[in-house]
Amino acid sequence: MTETALRDFKKFTRESLPRVEVLAQGHRACQGCGEILALRMALKAMGKNIIVASATGCMEIVTSSYPQTAWEVPWIHVAFENAAAVASGIESGRKALMRKGRLRKQRITVVAMAGDGGTADIGIQALSGALERGHDFVYICLDNEAYMNTGIQRSSATPYGAMTTTSPPGKLSIGQRTWKKNVPAIAAAHTIPYVATASPAYYLDLMNKAKKAAMIKGPAYLHLFSPCPTGWRLAPERTVEISRLAVQTNVFPLYEVVDGRYIITKKIKRPKPVEEYLKLQGRFRHLDNKTIRQIQVRVDKEYDLLVQKAGLTETQEESKHN
Amino acid sequence: MAKVDAITGWRNLEIGCAITEPGSSRKLKTGDWRSQRPVTDYDKCIKCGLCWIYCPDMVYSPTRDGYFKWNGDYCKGCGICAHECPKDAITMIMEGE
Amino acid sequence: MPKKVGIEVSLAVSEAVCAADVDVIPAYPVTPQTHIVEHLSELVADGELDAEFMPVESEHSAMSACIGAAAVGARTFTATSAPGLALMHEIVFIAPSLRTPIVMVIANRALSGPISIWNDHSDIMAQRDCGWIQTFAENGQEVFDLIIHAFRVAEDPEVLLPMIVNMDGFTLSHVIEPIELLSASEVSQYLKPFEPQLVLDPKNPVTMGPVGVPELYTEARQQAESVLNGSKKVIVRAWKEFAKLYGRSYKPIETYRTEGAEVVLMTMGSVTETAMTAVDRMREKGIEVGLMRFRLWRPFPHEEFRRAVRGIKALAVVDRAISFGAQGGPVCSKVKSALYGAPYQPQVFGFISGLGGRDITVEMFKQMVKKAIRYAKKGEGPVYELIGVRER
Fold first, then answer.
1. What gap in Å lies between CA B2 and CA A305, rounded to an integer?
2. Contact (CB<8Å) C50/A96
3. Interface pTM (ipTM) of the complex?
């Protein structure tokens, strides 16, 4: 079904990048913000024929501080945990009005956006409900791995060992003591047509995935790696570099799940050691070699599992066709 | 950056305080946050556009001859463009220099 | 004129929603509201109502989806009860701020704990300052009519506020009453299609719900307060027009046998009918007692109330919720504050009764009246009393 929907899909290339900007200049994101960069790219790919429902968070406050807005498209903010529910209401409202002849029939992409806290923690119920109900919308999780807007508190998407203001390292603590929640896998478990991870360093990959997500009918989930120089204690010019390193070390692998089929979109032949990724960020500065080795083992294991998922389903596909 | 233009009487507010002028954030010249600014050496520039696509503040815009023009009104001086430029054509210099 | 049919009041709620040609119904089941959403889903499944029935995963999402749907211009309805209303609390306050004219029926139920599925008014009283227009129905016919009225008022361009119609859980929601059901075509004379002022539309992009910076927030709240207070004239006008079209007339405050009354009982909702019986029986015995009830609770009908109490010696205000630590119930507190500085001030005695499904019987109303008469003569009484509580 998804493959039919993507029949007319034409990839963006370096030469055919859309010129359109959906966000205006003058937004108040921090210097070198990777979150608004990832958002900007996804929005460019989707264009202006969209309606956006935003959760509370950095992106909400930096774009909508009264009386100015950075939005060139219709946008609504209601609360923190309900972006998916608001988006599902928008989609259903339009559907009913179009069916009843009170609104011109036209496909508009309904987008819900939230940070990792608004997605993995407080918003996961609304997200799960909207995915399960099968609304035609795109959910974008802008993952900067902590509650940055409130002052860098840990979320369930904060990586192991990271220092945040509520997972401080100390005599009895190595920092965050849990492993990052795998939200893309949770989204995929809803058997929705499209799930993808993307990183702004690989902008063509990100934009093509955003375009696909908008084209597909039904729920699509995009998980965008969103470096936060402020919260990660990272030099602001290194936002794109760290986005690249996350992929090259397999800390944040790039893949799609199309109709349940896992496809790794950026295969890393010789991954760099995770230490290269960790050492650029002050939030990991306190980690000892033992913990870094632990993280390396975990990253390798998770990547193997991903490869297995991708391989396994590919084999199944093959046997089905044989 | 003060919210002087937010100071208005309640009778002037739109229904539900909606903002009806899209993209009005352009009025906020965030360039004054900057301590460093990028300078492009057009002799080295290969028109790859990475400065444009990697800019979180949409500071670069394509020109007719294929280069990318910088807009100081909004550049916060993060330095991503200089850091990512494959030909080291962009240098960050201190403001005022 | 349509004939009266015997119908469960919850089903009549659904029929009213159907007659109002609602577009979107995000709903989550909670006792005692369930029959409403069950029947609505049936009406949609049978093609009798062309709407999106959204079986959301919580009341929090129900209200969130209502806002999303209303923001694109859809006529939107939901229904809930105590735990559900409490869960949606955060979003309930945002709906009027965004000026989304959602209509919600609350099948009133006690708040936990201990958990109780039965009727009182603690759920809605916890939301009384949420910025919605709020009415209380006494019987099934009134529920039906108030829903139609609610859409008309909520969507009025002068108002554009959400509206709650309260009906008592079980004692109203689950009883069969003779109700005159208006058809969609009859309702269409009264209720025109919703014409929103601002919608989410790519052709004309608006930003809804921007950050309320300190330079904005006070003015934003003033807008919400001013529109809510100003809605009263629209509410009353819409009731007058309703009466003209359908013959049933409604007012913000109803009075019953208050002429020459020494003591007047004040009630809300379905207990009013029992209270009327008590009044009739006491009047037969020569006790000068009357009854008054609020149909409109928010905006509070100050002027009407002050006019209605003129000449009355004492009010016995019946609350069906405790305002913990405030020494009384929310209705009594409001009544007292509404009288402060008024040219005519009856004595006010507060009674709390009928909590968590406990009946308020005719005898209990009589007891309250007798106490109020005694206290009035003495010139003082307790700050408030629970009626029908066992001590040991």
1. 51
2. yes
3. 0.97
- Alpha-carbon span A187 to A205, nearest angstrom: 20
- Radius of gyration of the CA atoms of chain A, in A: 19
Helix axes A34-46, A239-248, angle to 10 degrees: 80
C327: left (phi over 0), alpha (psi -120 to 50) or beta: left
For chain B, which residues score pLDDT lower than 50? 1-2
Tell me how far apart the alpha carbons of residues A210 and A203 are, in angstroms, rounded to a whole number: 10
CA distance, residue A170 to nearest chain C CA (Å): 36
Interface probe with B: pick from A41, A51, A52, A68, most Cβ of B within 10 Å: A68
Q: What is the pLDDT of residue C84?
A: 98
Q: What is the pLDDT, as a whole number, of residue A4?
A: 79
The reply to whether C229 touches chain B by the CB within 8 Å rule is: no
Q: What is the pLDDT of residue A84?
A: 98
Distance of CA C34 to CAs C21, C29, C79, C186, Å?
20, 5, 9, 27
Mean pLDDT for each consecutive 10-residue tract of chain C (392 residues)? 90 98 98 98 98 98 98 98 98 98 98 97 98 98 98 98 98 98 97 97 98 95 98 98 98 96 97 98 97 98 97 97 96 98 96 98 98 97 96 94
- Check if the beta carbon of residue A89 is closer than 8 Å to that of residue C26: yes
Put simply, whether B6 touches C (Cβ < 8 Å) is yes
CA angle A89, A94, A96 (to 5 degrees): 95
Give B64: exposed, middle or buried? Use CB within 10 Å, 0-12, 13-18, 19+.
Answer: exposed
Fold of B28-94: Alpha-Beta Plaits (3.30.70)
Which element (helix H / strand E) includes C172?
none
CA–CA distance, A257 with A188 (Å, rounded to integer): 7
Q: Which of C337, C329, C314, C313 is nearest to C383 (CA)?
A: C329
| Closest Cα in chain A, distance from residue C287 (Å) | 54
C-alpha C179/C-alpha A16 separation (Å) is 65
Q: B20 contacts in C (CB within 8 Å)?
A: 198, 206-207
Query: What does the pLDDT read at residue A271?
Result: 97
Say yes or no for a CB contact (<8 Å) between A96 and C58. no
- Which ranges of chain A have pLDDT less than 70? 1, 313-322
Measured in whole angstroms, the distance separating CA C265 from the mean position of its chain's CA atoms is 19
Nearest to A296 by CA among A267, A271, A259, A260: A271
* DSSP secondary structure letter of residue A216: S
What distance in Å separates residue A73's CA from the closest CA in chain C? 5
Instruction: List the domains of chain C with CATH numbers.
Output: 4-246 (3.40.50.970), 253-386 (3.40.50.920)
Residue A321: the pLDDT is 45
Mutate to test the interface with B, among C155, C158, C198, C207 (most CBs of B within 10 A): C207
Domain ranges of chain A: 2-321
Q: Which residues of A touch B30 (CB under 8 A)?
A: 25-28
Contact B56 A29 (CB under 8 A): yes
Contact partners, residue C105, CB within 8 Å, separation at least 6? C13, C33, C36, C77, C79, C143, C147, C164, C165, C166, C167
Which chain B positions have a beta carbon within 8 Å of C219's beta carbon? 8-10, 13
CATH architecture of the domain formed by A2-321 = 3-Layer(aba) Sandwich (3.40)
**pLDDT computed for residue A6 by the predictor:** 87
Which of C67, C76, C104, C206 to mutate to probe the A interface, most A CBs <10 Å?
C67
Cβ pair C205:B17 closer than 8 A: no
